[in-house]
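Q: I have two molecules that I believe assemble together. Could you output structure tokens for the complex as a whole instead of separate predictions?
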Amino acid sequence: MIRLTGIPDIGKPRVVIVGGGFAGLKLARSLANADFQVVLIDKNNYHTFQPLLYQVATSGLNGASIAYPFRKFFEKQENFFFRLSEVEWVDAEQGVLTTTIGAIPYDYLVIATGAETNFFGDELMRKNAIALKSINDAVMLRNTILCNLENALQAQDEEQLNLLMDFVIVGGGPTGVELAGALSELRKHVFPKDYKELNIKQMDINLIQSGDQLLKSMSPEASEKSLRFLTDYGVKVWLNRRVKSYDGQTVTLDSGEELKAQTLIWTAGVVGSPIKGLKEESIIKSNRILVNEYNLVKGYDNIFAIGDVACMLTPEYPEGHPMVAQPALQQGKLLARNLLRILKGEKPDAFKYYDQGSMATIGRNHAVADLKMFNREFKTQGFLAWLIWMFIHLISIISFKNRLIVLLNWISGYFSYDKGIRLILGRKKD
Amino acid sequence: MIRLTGIPDIGKPRVVIVGGGFAGLKLARSLANADFQVVLIDKNNYHTFQPLLYQVATSGLNGASIAYPFRKFFEKQENFFFRLSEVEWVDAEQGVLTTTIGAIPYDYLVIATGAETNFFGDELMRKNAIALKSINDAVMLRNTILCNLENALQAQDEEQLNLLMDFVIVGGGPTGVELAGALSELRKHVFPKDYKELNIKQMDINLIQSGDQLLKSMSPEASEKSLRFLTDYGVKVWLNRRVKSYDGQTVTLDSGEELKAQTLIWTAGVVGSPIKGLKEESIIKSNRILVNEYNLVKGYDNIFAIGDVACMLTPEYPEGHPMVAQPALQQGKLLARNLLRILKGEKPDAFKYYDQGSMATIGRNHAVADLKMFNREFKTQGFLAWLIWMFIHLISIISFKNRLIVLLNWISGYFSYDKGIRLILGRKKD
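A: Yes, here they are, computed for all two components at once.
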């Protein structure tokens, strides 16, 4: 017998949303006044503002200021129910989702489980590398960076010193670039004061990119400038290199070169994170879920997928939309409207992605931005891009208080050249 | 052979301070321009403002806003050296401190290791109870409280529901009283909105106190009013009871009564936390280190103890000074001056404790305060005491930014009746 969870039946069609990232959160919120019961399942009790995780990892921000409790966010939404749990599998025939806390029947299921780090099957890499997908990951990375420097004070020889003080970041996308930039700021402005006994110039920051440019999803101008900014910061950028293996100490590149570092941060790709029980035909390579233009999962008539985990093949995006916040938010919003249309027997609207551009920050006063507004493109690099980056990220954070705290940290950090959350709190990488 | 740590010899007499709490931090800072090398050893890389730990545990504040990195605090102090490590033992004859990272020779050793929770040898209690001495403890307690409520939604019967929703706090000192007050605020203002599916009235908060009054170190007025405030908040205060046993579910009192709760918070006493290797005669019952009026440890001429771990027997304080922040700060400050006098061959000054009073907050608008200023006593309870409590705590926090963030959280919490850091982050009690 299946044990049901205690979610009450409120006599309305039930939409079960798995995952409270950008897509799931937007959908749940957009259904606020709809004639649905909205059930959100997540393994955390809070939403994470992922674009700023790298600042948590580099002591610029506190984890709590980029997290927001779901129950607080939906406090006044009467049709909303939350359960802290993880999905085990879906029984689509019965219309039941099995979770770690029991079974949840649904009328409509929405999979918004996002993406997970792609180690391309390299189990040794999975074990030895640090990924950056959650606040716990970010805090662990912060702890590891700080402990490395503390331990470097006790290093017995040059080899051990280098293992501790050198860092390797794999992947030249936004996360890799932003992390390399923030780490080099720590090296330039913070560590020389904190660790006067060490020669901080010995600290190497290596960024490894498989292609011949950084930020390859952005404009050539953005790619070029980000490379220049990082090189000016003293980051060693290795283009056209792939990591062949990493044993926890030695990084072997496909070019034959070797780097030594005890800490390797892996940002070189993500795959979808679908749930079990779906038909094989609905999962494509890269583990994303194949959906049609209404975000309906192939082979089902009441299971949807939105956000990073969903792959909608269109002429413009033959490999699916980019796995970033904007498509997720737009799909969440549209699906809410479409569910209402379906309820009324109307035909849903097809999804069309409005790309508003993308950006990445490299460090103080330096960012790159490719913006699209009113059908016009606008590219900028440097100080203006950096101001725009800060403004957009600040207004995107949930809650006035968190925005204030982030702003306060940024302002104080800007004028003091400091990153103040240098706390070794909780677990570090084993 | 003993492996030395890499702390350089700067040709000045070396003062090694173990522990960066109030006492150790004050001492290290007060030696800023002195002709000593100051070495601080701590198992954390940050100072913890312990008086506000209970607010971290009850989702009112973030851990980071009451923590401050040592290296940042001493950034400009040229004679300061920090090592993240734990003490193993002291070899007083050789003048060497052995730590987890190697041996550290000293000219003067100062033990400022503070206090630890006293479970009175009850190993079952140590295993099952939650203590509140560190930020990690506080975050774990917050996670546990929130998980209990999440799990209560899935409770199979009334017994399980009560185990999850009821809380037992042992100890009616400031920590127990403040925690009981903050928890009852969560119950009144936050949980009814977060957990509409639960009947929050079922949540019991029990406070167990061995004597016939709460806050027994304070005035009768403070004791009486704190009892009234807590009772008004719906806290069940059990006076004249001791806990006989706790198996993780059932709390058995010496009166024969039984309480059921999966979560028991133990605040019923502390003992000193001395280091190994000291002569037996220098450690007294309650594990504190016996010191003379100069904080010199009995039996040694270059080992001092300050703060909670030090026990100075005086006619006014026949059992030693209270284990709170004020004596620690004053002893740290005086010892800095005395070390300078010793260096000059002058006679040190004897310690005299200036008790400035004490206070405890019970909840919004409610605190009790016994203040001593200019040889006058001033007692107040209620709103004014609460304002004074906030002001004193706010100005005591290190750094302008942390003060601003705490103030921001307090103001936003006051007007919204909310405690916003309801994040289950990291580990909970197993």
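A: One point stands out. Chain A has two domains: 14-117+270-343, 123-268.
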